Give the backbone structure.
Amino acid sequence: MHSSARPLAALLAALTLTAGLFAAGAPASATANDAAPTTKASDVSLAADTYDWKNVRIDGGGFVPGIVFNRSEKNLAYARTDIGGAYRWDQSGKRWTPLLDWVDWDHWGWSGVVSLASDSARPDNVYAAVGTYTNSWDPTNGAVLRSSDRGASWKASTLPFKLGGNMPGRGMGERLAVDPNKNSVLYLGAPSGKGLWRSTDSGVNWSKVTAFPNPGNYSQDPSDTSGYGNDNQGIVWVTFDERTGSAGSATRVIYVGVADKANTVYRSTDGGATWSRIAGQPTGYLAHKGVLDSSSGYLYLTLSDTGGPYDGGKGRIWRYATATGEWKDVSPVAEADTYYGFSGLSVDRQQPGTLMATAYSSWWPDTQIFRSTNSGATWTQAWDYSSYPNRTNRFTQDVSSVPWLTWGANPSPPETTPKLGWMTEALEIDPFDSNRMMYGTGATVYGTENLKNWDSGSQFKITPMVKGLEETAVNDLASPPSGAPLLSALGDIGGFRHTALDTVPGMMFTSPNLTSATSLDFAEASPNTVVRVGDADAAPHIGFSTDNGANWFQGSEPSGVTGGGTVAAAADGSGFVWSPVGAGVQHTTGYGSSWSASTGIPAGATVESDRKNPKKFYGYRGGIFYVSTDGGATFTTKASSGLPAEGNVRFKAVPGTEGDVWLAGGSATGVYGLWHSTDSGATFTKLPGVEQADSVGFGKAAAGASYQTLFVTAKIGGVRGIFRSTNAGASWTRINDDAHQWGWIGAAITGDPRVYGRVYVSTNGRGIMYGDSSGSGGTDPGTDPGNPPAGAACSVTYVVTNQWNDGFQADVTVTNTGTKALDGWQLGWTFPDGQRITQMWNAVSGQVGAKATAANVSWNGKVAVGASAGFGFTGTLSGSNGRPAAFTLGGAACTVG
């Protein structure tokens, strides 16, 4: 199994984002401590359309370093990812619900979750410590997010330091913990030598625990000068001894794990006032986890010689008797027999003395899971050798719901496919159900619902428990005019051919298997011809397909290639141009049996093809645009004046029209925006009103439109979002909202040439999103939509999307069914059961008694005929939660859908 630790895909994105794109501002659906962004008046026609957003299903694809069960409510569980946000388990659908999709562009680092904590005293409360990198790659500080409605809405407290959800050591934890006896008290272990922090007001304000003596001293690679490998991993977990407090009184005994091989466990016996190193503790290792079994009074530690999540050569498991102070090595194997560290650790709250642990860093032949039913005195293993290399497994494994988890491999024993996993730093036994256990790997979440079969001698069944959790980093997307609707290039797991968007593909691209695909293209006039390139440990770095990506064959490559770079296919599939890492730009005819160096274009240039003329290719680097008219053999310099010389630049040619090119990119410290050329790059015109743009794509033209639909990720009229234009950029419609932002989305975007309005959007950790318009309009508004007419016709849909004991979340869509465009709107309704709005996004709320209103915000006030605007809110309830029977807009009643 490949590592989804990603520093590669995530770091590349981070490095490209440090060029000044970040202004201080609050995320849209959270109340942050820093100032809200200022919205500028738009100098372009800007409207809004309501879209339905879903994930293109892959199921998993990245590292899940933490799983947290609530200790007082059954079936309430959360999972954290290193760059893809946090999730809550939905037992009814047996799937995960994403909780941080509102994280905006300016706070993209908050998609990295370093720790989660669920409040057992009040299960509606959940906390997340967020931040992706502790060095300069992430320019924003970390934060502790707090929610009183299980993650439906959040408030944020920004910290005076950074957090590292994608840093070394991220599988240790949990670093964030709620006092089980006094839930207003929380602790947070910080990295980078920042020490231990405490909140006494339910996570609103935080202060350093100055009495804590040791901020840690371990780093993965002290010689690394980037701030990544040499960062001090700091305070890594906090565990309360719940027996030493009572309801409303702070817990007296607290244990803290520190990244220090000589001093890895500390304790306070006076509620955090003073701290001391526990005598007799094991040394030479880091305690990845510290879990207290309150029934026996044992504190268990899983230890490794490194911080993980993918390294670790030696490890132990130790037990501390809190009543007597005795330390005991209870490791399941001799130290000499370990070639891995221990990390995943859980005790069975229903069966005293039962605990489990993982050999998290054992890649070959497989990871190992250990189980003890007598407090670590003896252990059994998930698998044993019968007669080497044959294995006897205590489990069966069924990955038919996510078949690509076999990796298309055919290994020799003792390896198997699928594997139990790798990077298994998260393992949790359900505190209410001894039969259910979940564990995270570098690619998925596995689990079982008949775990007790382990003890009876029969096999327990392991299946993916990952539906709804999408965690791929997306590098490129393509939607051909025929064949599969979507092809993707992904970090860590290569990419997929999706023949159905809501179905998990059978296998990722193989022959060759690329650890991370960086670019792909198809021949516009011959979509069965597809090429992809990417990173791999060794050659080849390129593959070709002649059946629309269903099957592949390996291509040859020029000498010196070390990485994928970018690739382009001729419009008719007759040749290819490749700009790999480690070698200059190359061209070939046929399928790359031999390559020749292109001239007139620098190494490292981004390459694309004209979508009409098979001999024409384009290139870009350092502010200069290049064109070839001989199949990529020679390039000449075209436009250079006014184009961005720094930052990410992405460009594409419009299908079916020779020489029609759109270019997006730049940096906030230099030139930044969107440009259009109709003469093959000889001249470019910058579009007014588009302050920033990062990726551009095309889709099916709207009814009656003469130009293909244009999609961009951009900042237009002072608003960051995803925008659509059906009139070549003369006017724009924002098609995402503040609840659907997904952090950094600048890598790739494309429309669907067969479905008007459909768009595919890359994320850096939340997989591939696709959106379809929920309105019936086929064109964007004109430049002057006018004022809202009195008695405007409208229809409204009101959907309760989530509900809990004393609260709920609802989404509302208002559609303009009249004959004139709206330029500002206010929707009114009456709650039937005394519901109260607590927080609203994408609209301004008002409420007097049972009567509520929602008024447009700056970016969604203009609603074209047939188009829609949407907003959402959370509210409180007591008893019933009936939906409003009627809505009014502009004094007139709306149709209720």
